[in-house]
Amino acid sequence: MATEPTNPTISGEERRVIFASSLGTIFEWYDFYLYATLATFFAAKFFPPGNDTAALLASLATYAAGFLVRPFGALVFGRIGDLVGRKYTFLVTISVMGVSTFGVGLLPSYETIGLAAPLVLTLLRLLQGLALGGEYGGAVIYVAEHSRQDRRGYSTSWIQTTATIGFFLSLLIIGVCRGLLFSKQEFAGWGWRVPFWFSLILLAFSLYIRLRLHESPVFLRIKEENRVSKQPLTDSFLRYPNVKYVVLALFGAVAGQGVVWYTGQFYVLFFLQNTLQVDWLTVYLLLGAALLLGTPMFVVFGRLSDKIGRVKIIATGCLLAAILYFPVFKGLTHYANPALETFRERTAITVAAEDCGFHVFTTANTVYSACDRVTDLLTKRGVSFESKPGVAGQPVVVTLGGGGASASGAAVPDKELARWTPDKNPNDKDSKYLKALEDELKARGYPGPAASEQINYVAVLALLVVLILLVTMVYGPIAALLVELFPAKIRYTSMSLPYHLANGWIGGLLPLVATAMAASSGDIYHGLWYPVVVAVITTIVGISFLRDAKPGFNIND
User: What is the per-residue pLDDT for 425?
Assistant: First the structure.
């Protein structure tokens, strides 16, 4: 096997490749994450009214739809990339992404076109997911195939920064629109469309930059030598040992990377806004600051992986995530909304019912039971509760006790709320029972939204930085590891599928699954078990079975 020569400096061509590939990928991530950033807002804009938790879950389900199709985009565009070339493929993917994102900005609301709104929104999200399924692999491989082994982790880590920078850019553009350009009413009415329209400008700029690039030298070489795979799907997934490396890459690296990524940047966004009820602008500013502070560490860990290996860093990041998630999220509650933490600790709540439903995809005809409406109210307030078997003759019985105290500090006795009386409209938010429950929560000192004067901004920022640092540990070296696992002739197909299975299904579904787990269990931290378990599995599999490329590895082979 031929070895690659070393060179202590990066050539001008490598810099141009890194810059052009990274810039285009930043814009593509910006497009994809606009929806994620506005997911809580879209719950009211594009989905049937009646149950805010169900609408949020439906919004997150549509958000997750874009992730579900990413592996299919990886198969389609990965095959094209291995047959036709890297450059052509990621020109197509960025075009599909830009046009579908612009389409979201043109979409009428549920109030205007009814169920067609969530259906078309889902279709556009599917197109976004297909495009992203092909984009990432092309950009990473293109950079890696222009780089040498002794700095491949460093070079590809710049691509790894693009997802976080794209997320930050989406926060920035939305924040400017919501906070500076439009009033609250204007943004809710039509101003939310502007960030999506802006993607058309980014698309034009990205295409201009990428059209000036040349094809990957590695692909040109294997094409000249007639080594291009005629059946990249078969060679990738039905031939040994390649299929073994696909499975190991999935469970030993990118599954853990996926859950750490989406916990540290998206689930925490929903947790702070929805569960802890911190003002959206405060959340955007704190998370944006954490992203700015943490993003350089992608490059640091990418460069470190060139020296000590990729697997060690990724496995360590997953293990630390599994250890730290529960204390970090409990710390966020303590420092972001301490009054809510105090209320939760002194007020035990149980919900006894037999007909609690679980609604993810809702329509205007969805009927919510008494239990659904009670748990919706409690979940929206960030209050934990324990589910109990139903009481005969009562649709739902809520008991508040456990040493509760009023806002003034006076002791409040345990109280059982029963005698649910069905309203004429089963989805009416103004139920007398719900009003009584709301009044009882307030009587026991429920604090409501996080008070700005009680937020410890420095501590919350520090905890967010910890989450971002975990993201950089697992994500910085992952591209170089995946590129080096697979031969050049099937590299695009082979690495794209496990990456997008992990990030599209295992990681991408995390905000939906974790939110649903917390809502159904009544414990606001219960959803964290999902990333913790996956991160532990990845640590074990990665350390046990994955190995870094040997010195002298030739990326042309």
Answer: 52
